[in-house]
What does this fold into?
Amino acid sequence: MINPVKELRDFAAAALVEPVPRDHSEPDALFRRRRVIAGVTLVVGTVVLGLTIRIPPGDDLFYLGGLVLAAVWAVGGLTAGSLHLGWAHSRDGRLVRPVVQPVALAALAIAIFLAGAVVVGRVPWLAGPVDAVLDHARYGTLGLIWAITVLTGIGEELYFRGALYAAIGRRHPIAVTTVVYAAATALTGNLMLAFAAVLLGVLTGAQRRVTGGVLAPIITHILWSSAMLLLLPPLLDVVR
It folds into this structure.
């Protein structure tokens, strides 16, 4: 008979706690180069993010800004140094590419955020910052906004859980990358966006630590951000 508590405990351990065996060490010169590129990318990406998020909803410049932002994060992540897709523990003890676990974690994160949105939607000063982001989908071309959302999510993970995570070294990479991710987002002036960045940063950072790569964080990020884009607007409209 299946024990659901044990199943959940084993899943959490495999997906978020127990790292797969790996050796991603690199020469000091490459490590220093990674840090320099990661630092420059962070400055440029933060500036582009701040400018893009301030573009009024419905303005076609938002599409260009979103594409430039995705490109900055992706190029910085890929040029800083080698990245790995990562591996995940399977039920039979083998190492496999992380797909099922990040999908399950994304579903859990989506459920939590949607439940939180029911509360947020009833508090005007909390709902306002959320609407400021979602208005780009309400007044723009949804399909194009979704494509940019996916590309930006991939770019952010290539950089924050890829290049930046590796550039931090072995001392508190989850905490440091999460703080930097949230701080860069907070500079947009949208604190709800920064709060979401903290939660997402911790989750994807834990996945990066366990799998040793960026595939799991990318899958979780794009599924979560797609759900927020497509499901949050109608949900907020209902609860208000």
